[in-house]
């Protein structure tokens, strides 16, 4: 999409992202080989991780 997304952190957003990271982690454990499915999952993981890092920096 090549667009910046601004997320204003609050406990609800943080909890939802944390829960999504748990789901992604569980799915990565399930996958044994690299596939198109895991590539999309890795992209989602990257976006969620960047967002969580941004929220973490906001609280400092």
Order of helices and strands: HH
Terminal CA distance: 29 Å
The proportion of residues in beta strands is under 5%
What is the helical fraction, as a range of percent?
Answer: over 70%
Largest sheet: none
Shape: flat
Q: How many strand segments?
A: 0
Architecture overview:
The chain is an all-alpha fold and 60 residues long. It has one domain (11-59). Helices cover 73% and strands 0% of the residues. It contains two helices and no strands. Helix 1 (11-30) runs antiparallel to helix 2.
Features:
2 helices; about 60 residues
Helices and strands in order, then pairings?
Blueprint: H1 11-30, H2 36-59
Structure described in brief:
By secondary structure, the protein is an all-alpha fold.
């Amino acid at each position: 999409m090549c667009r910046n997304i601004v997320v204003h952190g609050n406990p609800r957003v943080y909890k939802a992202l944390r829960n999504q990271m748990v789901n992604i982690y569980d799915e990565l454990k399930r996958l044994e080989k690299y596939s198109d499915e895991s590539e999309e999952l890795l992209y989602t993981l990257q976006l969620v991780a960047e967002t969580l890092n941004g929220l973490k920096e906001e609280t400092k």
